[in-house]
């Protein structure tokens, strides 16, 4: 079982590691400009896309668990319908976002805090990157479906290719064409569409037989769409809570000043690096827990959960040590501005303990998604979000920016604690 976990986790870890690497390169490119406002602008623009893209991450998460259960039942038609329904919703959403882009930008920058200069640059970033929306959301769906099919190799190939293209193109556009925030955004657009082309090629190579199941009437069948949307709706609300927390975090950072925004943006890369690494095991949990739920193999279900938590503890300790001994060195990867580094070092201890407070939440997310326990997942996230805001508003007057980092650590810890308490209420234990 450990071999099975690693077979699925390692490709996802390699895949995910390119994502924070991309964020690090973007921060590096902007952090080595002549002002902190460029780092702040990419951070603020990134928050808008967190809202846009994380808002549709429910499609990937709901699809992976449901597809894995269909795989466990060996139901080819159900596997196909899940993919086609997901793509129908993804492409519809992508084109709606393109039509509504002006309203999204105006509303987002009205709500978010930040200086006028940072907001103007963030708008420039937004209007370029939004054109990647149809491809980006479609790729989320296909990633989830591949994972449900117990295939972690294809998402790895696609994601690494996308992020390498993104890094190279952003570097060239910023360094040689002096495009600054627009160059970073355009690099994302180019890479997403090239990634979608690669995805179609790989799909046809291995899953061409799925196309025989295509039936537009079945895709729009009310019962199928409602079943998909019921699970997706709960996961959407869960994801919305994460979006709200991270958006609030960045907005409050921007409201404190450009220097705090730049420092917090650099420190968030530590969180993202750890989270994308642990998500490799969460994705393995989605695939395996979904398969064992579909085949009703409870012995393997429980064994998988225990082994996944063993891996989670190991990597939490490794990252705590890495951030403890190498945190200051990592900060210099993101920026050469001494004032930003000096501010970030004050808050670095909160990032050192974050792997210990946060690891359980990632493992449990994979378990809950695989078991399609979307309602329980939603409820635990609502409770953790409440913890975040109560703690922040209780402490902000006395502790300032420290209150944001304390609340973030408790948000991550709360997710894991509440999911542990609700574990025995998973639907699989009642069936």
What report would you give on this structure?
There is one protein chain. By secondary structure, this protein is mainly alpha-helical. The chain has one domain (2-430). It is built from 17 helices and no strands. Helix 12 packs parallel to helix 14. The protein is globular. It starts with a helix and ends with a helix.
What's a concise summary of this model?
The chain has 431 residues and is mainly α. The protein is 87% helix and 0% strand. The model has no long low-confidence stretch (mean pLDDT 85).
Task: Please give a handful of descriptors for the protein shown.
431 residues, mainly alpha, 87% helix, globular
Blueprint of the fold:
Layout lengths: L1 H30 L5 H18 L2 H17 L2 H24 L1 H11 L4 H14 L3 H16 L4 H23 L5 H26 L9 H4 L2 H35 L1 H37 L3 H37 L3 H33 L3 H26 L1 H22 L4 H4 L1
- Uncertain stretches: none
For the termini, the CA-CA separation is 24 Å
Task: Tell me the Rg in angstroms.
Answer: 21 Å
Proportion of helical residues: over 70%
The overall average pLDDT, rounded, is: 85
Helical stretch tally: 17
The global form is: globular
